[in-house]
């Protein structure tokens, strides 16, 4: 199989859902360990997400600054959003999020990387896309509300974001993974080596 993650599922003898929220829930499973003991595991059940590292012709990344209440910070992030519809095509969701949050469209899309954000306590899977050949979107701007009504937009050189990540100044998971992945790609095999935008995603299967 090589050096890669592999799917596996240990026996679950019982399960319950003590909390159900608007978009996510909490599940408790009783899981059989390799020595035969049974332990309880609590975790958040999440629909999955997409994120977009949008790179313009000047080597700048589209970022936004948004308040995140659980960590009591305004974080610089890349456009991202939930996969609200089961089986939704992640590329279509990413294109929607780039339009809604940054009023930008892109002609060239590729998969940058796929991650589990916090696999010890949540099943959230995120697909991060690289979007290039940017232009202003057409049509009416999406009407924002709540935290998004206070968002700031900027375009920041990739290397400045890399510096901020390594200096401990930028903390958003998708931004950190996205900018470091792109820096590695540019220093390595190049953007043409990336997977196509419709590449399979076993963590969140979808129809093309």
Automatic annotation (TrEMBL):
Cross-referenced Pfam families: NUDIX (PF00293)
Key word Methyltransferase present: no
Coiled-coil zones: none
Segments forming domain Nudix hydrolase: 44-178
Annotated keywords: Hydrolase
Top-level taxon: Bacteria
GO molecular function: hydrolase activity
Cross-referenced PANTHER family: ADP-RIBOSE PYROPHOSPHATASE, UDP/ADP-SUGAR PYROPHOSPHATASE
Protein's name in the database: NUDIX hydrolase
């Amino acid at each position: 199989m090589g050096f890669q993650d592999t799917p596996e599922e240990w026996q679950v003898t019982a399960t319950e859902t003590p909390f159900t929220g608007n978009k996510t829930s909490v599940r408790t499973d009783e899981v059989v360990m390799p020595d035969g003991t049974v332990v309880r595991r609590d975790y958040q059940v999440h629909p999955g997400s997409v994120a977009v590292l949008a790179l313009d012709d000047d080597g700048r990344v589209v970022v936004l600054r948004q308040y995140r209440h659980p960590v009591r910070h305004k974080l610089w992030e890349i456009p991202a959003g939930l996969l609200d519809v089961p089986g939704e095509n992640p590329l279509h969701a990413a294109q929607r999020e780039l339009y809604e949050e940054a009023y930008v469209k892109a002609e060239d899309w590729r998969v940058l990387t796929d991650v589990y954000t916090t696999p010890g306590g949540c099943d959230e899977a995120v697909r991060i896309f690289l979007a290039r050949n940017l232009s202003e979107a057409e049509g009416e701007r999406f009407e924002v509300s709540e935290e998004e009504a206070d968002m700031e937009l900027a375009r920041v050189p990739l290397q400045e974001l890399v510096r901020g990540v390594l200096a401990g100044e930028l903390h958003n998971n998708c931004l950190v993974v996205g900018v470091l992945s792109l820096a590695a790609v540019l220093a390595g095999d190049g953007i043409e080596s990336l997977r196509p935008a419709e590449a399979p995603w076993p963590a969140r299967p979808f129809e093309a």
